[in-house]
Amino acid sequence: MKLPIIIVNFKCYEQSTGKKAVQLAKICESVGKKYRVNIAVVPQLTDISLISKEVKIPILSQHIDPIEPGAFTGHTSPFSVKDAGAIGTLINHSERKLNLDEIEKRVNSAKKYRLETVCCSANVDESKEIAKFNPDLIAYEPPELIGTGIPVSKTKPEVVTQTVDEIKKINASIKVLCGAGITNGEDVKKALELGTYGVLLASGVVKAQDPKAILEDMAKVLV
Question: Which of 9, 74, 164, 211 could be a cystine partner for 202, CB 3.0 to 4.6 Å?
Answer without folding.
Answer: 9
